[in-house]
Design a protein that fits this description.
The chain has 494 residues and is α+β, with helices and mostly antiparallel strands. Among the domains are: 115 residues, no CATH class; 129 residues, Four Helix Bundle (Hemerythrin (Met), subunit A) (Up-down Bundle). It is 61% helix and 7% strand. Strands 3-4-2-5 form a 4-stranded antiparallel β-sheet. Helix 3 runs antiparallel to helix 11, helix 5 crosses helix 7 and helix 5 packs across helix 8. The longest helix has 62 residues.
Length: 494
């Protein structure tokens, strides 16, 4: 039995292409041929990928997603308190802040305590045996679990929050989602009440200080009025004006009386002397009163300052009392500006894994792997499978091929001689292939007469003796032919 043989003209062996020429770029048709030759291997890797994808899809633990929608609005500004309205940027910051609050560790910790997640897999007796450090680690682990599966998004148009939670347990996913919303609402109320309580405490202290300041200002004003004999700035000015007017009238009356008496009597007349004394006394009293009024003006100025200080202190006190009442009303208000629109329901179906998608991915992955493996095998394969491979890679002309020959059942009783198969089977395909090689050799050297033909190969057992012996028998029909076996170690021609 001899394998298929390819005989080529190696007379131009010096012109063999180098390795760079052998590394020819594959064309699209080459790739199609590769896929055609390895189609069953590619199909096998695709089937293997499908089986692996089914296994992965069945082994992957399903995940359930529960979601709810929540409306959160900023607190409306109070006109009475002068609270400013929210601008566009303030609104944006408000919603981003609320989003971070919902995802915060504080909310997650509230959820853990609300649902008692740290006690789910342990009985009360087991929990009692845990050390404080172990209990804290369990709580921290559950907090991380809540934060890890929580997703918060906000619609840019409607400003509605969507809270989602992903878990392997559908009931737990719904419970945690609803608990997050409740914990967020409680946190908002607690924060507002805590702030109101803190403000109330601060207002109480400040009001008490202002009340003492009012009492001190009233006491100082009253003491000053008592000391100086003043009843108030307006009353003091009225009394001073009345006294000055009376003194002025007395002075004018004395002047008039003196002028009339001076017309009647002489300078030394007793009545004129008395009238002159009265006039001097009136002038003296008027000047004294005028000086007194000037002194009282300074006292009035100080009195005005004391009254103004008292008024300002009272106004500030009244303002703080008013704000304190507003804060007190706010602290008693249990309403919130956060509302749950749609509560989370227990999901009926998992949203992950998508088994069809997984199988398809593994299918295409298997096919891709098979294609890449086929191309790699072709690139690494340096054997010749068809005559075209020899012409393409070696640059030599293929003279012909020798088919496989074997001993038939009819000839098993007769000695089988492959070297003389051409002579014993002249009408066989083998004989025809030998004749084709003979013709190719003759036509390849048509310009000169061929006298010597060398048949050789790189390794033993490739059919050199079979080919050369039968080729010699074929040439013997055209003329005298000599066959020489050059294998000195293991000659077979004889």
């Amino acid at each position: 039995m001899e394998p298929l043989k390819i005989t080529s003209d190696i007379s131009n062996a010096a012109e063999l292409p180098n390795s760079d020429k052998q590394a020819k770029e594959l064309t699209f048709s080459d790739y199609l041929n590769i896929l055609r030759r390895h189609k069953w291997g590619i199909v096998s890797t695709g089937i293997l990928g499908v089986l692996l994808g089914v296994l992965v899809a069945m082994k992957t633990q399903p995940q359930y997603e529960a979601s709810l929608t929540l409306l959160a609005e900023p607190s409306l500004p109070r006109v009475t308190t002068g609270q400013p309205y929210y601008s566009g940027m303030s609104m944006y910051l408000f919603y981003k802040t609320q989003e971070e609050i919902i995802k915060s560790r504080k909310i997650a910790k509230k959820v853990v305590h609300m649902l008692e997640l740290d006690k789910i897999k342990h009985s009360d007796s087991q929990i009692g045996l845990l050390t404080p450090e172990e209990k804290q680690r369990r709580i921290d682990s559950q907090i991380s679990m809540v934060q890890g599966g929580l997703f918060v998004s906000i619609s840019e148009k409607s400003k509605i929050f969507k809270i989602r939670y992903v878990s392997h347990d559908p009931q737990l996913a719904a419970d945690i989602t609803n608990a997050v919303a409740r914990a967020y609402i409680e946190f908002t109320l607690e924060s507002r009440l805590s702030q109101a309580k803190h403000s109330s405490s601060w207002f109480t202290k400040r009001i008490e200080e202002l009340r003492k300041n009012v009492l001190v200002a009233e006491s100082v004003l009253q003491d000053y009025q008592t000391k100086e004999g003043m009843v108030g700035t307006e009353r003091s000015k009225e009394l001073e004006g009345t006294r000055l007017l009376n003194m002025n009238q007395e002075l004018r009356a004395a002047q008039t009386k003196y002028s009339e008496l001076a017309k009647r009597y002489g300078i030394k007349h007793p009545k004129l002397i008395l009238a002159k004394a009265d006039l001097e006394e009136a002038k003296k009293r008027f000047l004294t009163e005028e000086k007194k009024i000037v002194g009282d003006e300074r006292k009035v100025t100080k009195l005005v300052k004391l009254e103004r200080d008292l008024t300002v202190t009272r106004q500030l006190y009244d303002l703080f009392v008013k704000r304190f009442k507003e804060v007190d009303i706010t602290s008693q208000d249990s309403n919130t500006n956060i509302r749950i629109l749609d509560e989370a329901q227990v999901p009926a179906y998992p949203f992950k894994p998508d088994r069809k998608k997984i199988v398809l991915i593994y299918l295409f992955g298997g096919l891709f792997f098979g294609i890449m493996l086929s191309i790699l095998r072709e690139r690494l394969d340096n054997t010749f499978k068809v005559p075209e491979d020899i012409e393409e890679k070696l640059g030599q002309t293929v003279l012909g091929t020798v088919p496989l020959i074997e001993n038939s059942k009819k000839e098993q009783s007769i000695e089988f001689l492959p070297e003389r198969h051409y002579q014993t089977n002249t009408l066989s395909m083998f004989a025809e292939s030998i004749n084709h090689i003979r013709t190719s050799i003759l036509f390849s050297q048509i310009d000169k007469t061929t006298k010597t033909i060398l048949v050789t190969s790189s390794v033993p057992g490739e059919g050199k003796t079979t080919t050369s012996s039968n080729l010699a028998l074929s040439f013997s029909r055209l003329g005298r032919t000599l066959l020489v076996d050059a294998d000195m170690r293991k000659p077979r021609v004889g």
